[in-house]
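Structure ticket #2291
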Amino acid sequence: MVKVKLVKSNKDSEKEFLDRSAKEESRTIILADFINRNDFELKLLDNQLYHFESGRLLIQ
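Resolution: structure written out below.
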């Protein structure tokens, strides 16, 4: 199972988060644009699009 951490895409905090997370193994870094509380549209660093709905990560 992949550990997923959702963060708001923010230029000020993005670099700090990436630097901190780069030291932690087996963590997938996801920059999230929040659509609403239970539905997220996610973008990985490789620009693949993911959907996060009600606690489930749906990979298309």
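Closing remark: The chain is about 20% helix and 50% strand.
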